[in-house]
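Bumping with the actual sequence this time:
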Amino acid sequence: MKLLVTGATGFLGSAVARQVLAAGHSLRLLIRHTSDRRNLAGLEAELVEGDLREPSSLAAAVRGCDGLFHVAADYRLWVRHPRTLYDTNVDGTRNLMLAAADAGIERIVYTSSVAALGLHADGIPADEDTEVSFDNMIGHYKCSKFLAEEAVHHLVEKQGLPITIVNPATPVGPRDIRPTPTGRLVLDAANGNMPAYVDTGLCIAHVDDVARGHLLAFERGEVGRRYILGGENLLLREILACIAEITDTQPPRIRLPRAPLYPLALLAQVWARVSGARVEPRLTVDGLRMSRKRMYFSSRRAEQELGYSFRPAEEALRDAVEWFQENGYCS
């Protein structure tokens, strides 16, 4: 089959593209002409330039394809112009889905995020049916992914598009070239730049396991159904301790209260805005607000219905740290 993958120049998308090739499919990639193409090295793929925000540029990408993995997204917790998140994540997703429908693509996997799902205040792992509403969304990234998933559900229900939804938890591993917000956390810890931490938790999954989950969803997933592709639920303190063991350093011992950090986060955002910084601040107001709940998730549905499985978080963190070290990111 000829399968189209978006976002393959990025972290998760490049892993999905490799899974597609490993499964014996023919690969086509939709990329922007400005994209960093380092993650495409060694991939045997047809490249088509286009932009999710420009519907007219998508017809050539979807033409002749049997299936689609829409992985591309603008994943930033702070951005100077929030509208860009909605243009790409919501409108861009809708543009691509409609183009795929016009081209007669038979099978689509849309990469949403656990950011669009609900959480439990007591830390019990959430699942696909945990109650949630738009009012629960914190920050523009989460809002954009929530609205994008709503748009996808609408296209499935009203127009019959053959879309299965996957909700990755917190992917970690090699080829995080930007890096992503989570990758920056791992890199900062590996470089000894995290002397303290807040009390929160994350669901850590190896990026290659999440990518394999995409292929399983393509092969076995039910149209209109969502599947969490998660991993091991760990406290941030435990994650940092694991990275310290990998790098043979001392983990941070100081747990910080959140309240004094909000003014610092606000100042960091103001400075990023006025200075024209191209990278988001390491400390953001939305990041602090999100950390108030432990972001724990269950992959039981994907395990039972798709055959999904995940390796220990330590392997994901080790592969991430080693990749950063081998590629000159670590001091």
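The tokens above came from a reply further down the thread. The chain has a mean pLDDT of 95.
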